[in-house]
Structure formats: structure tokens, C-alpha cells
Write a structure and sequence with these properties.
Blueprint: H1 9-21, E1 29-30, H2 31-38, H3 42-54, E2 58-62, E3 68-72, H4 74-84
Antiparallel strand pairs: 1-3, 2-3
Protein name: Transcriptional regulator
InterPro entries: WH-like_DNA-bd_sf, WH_DNA-bd_sf
Organism: Noviherbaspirillum saxi
């Protein structure tokens, strides 16, 4: 069986999105806020989000200027809860 490598930024992005989901203000966090919280460059964050979106774990909403926000899908929230609420 082939070993699958996971981009090391993926777990951190999922953790930050899980925190965003539990934020008391309950508004989706911007890409800029996610970048700061995850401690990742925007290019790495965007690559991780593309991967997570392709497997249905996040929803990415972008506007023409490149700004936007991201949230976990229901499947992403369930997975993140299993992982991060231990």
C-alpha cells in the first residue's frame, strides 16, 4: 500500500477553521484573519483551501479583488470535531 503524504499545512488550517466555527461572533473569518491565525503565507493557505475544498471539507467564497471568507462544510465540521475535541 502506498503511503499518503498530507501537506503539513492542512491540519493547521483545519484547526483554525474549527476555531473560527466556534468563535462567539459566528461570522466567517476572512482569508487575512485565517492567514494570521494559522501563521501561514497566503499562498500556502490558498493551496490548502483548494485541496480541502476539492474533497468537500470547506466552502471558499471569494470576491473579484481576491478577498473572501472560508467556512467548514458540515462534513468538515464533523471531521474537525472528531480530531480537535479530544
Amino acid at each position: 500500500m502506498q503511503d499518503l503524504e498530507i501537506d503539513p499545512s492542512i491540519p493547521e488550517v483545519m484547526r483554525v477553521l474549527w476555531e473560527a466555527r466556534h468563535d462567539a461572533r459566528s461570522t466567517p473569518w476572512s482569508l487575512a484573519k485565517l492567514t494570521k491565525r494559522a501563521g501561514l503565507p497566503m499562498s500556502i493557505l490558498r493551496r490548502a483551501l483548494t485541496q480541502l475544498q476539492s474533497i468537500g471539507l470547506v466552502e471558499v467564497h471569494l470576491v473579484e479583488e481576491g478577498r473572501g471568507h472560508v467556512s467548514l462544510t458540515e462534513a468538515g465540521a464533523q471531521l474537525a470535531t472528531k480530531i480537535f475535541s479530544l
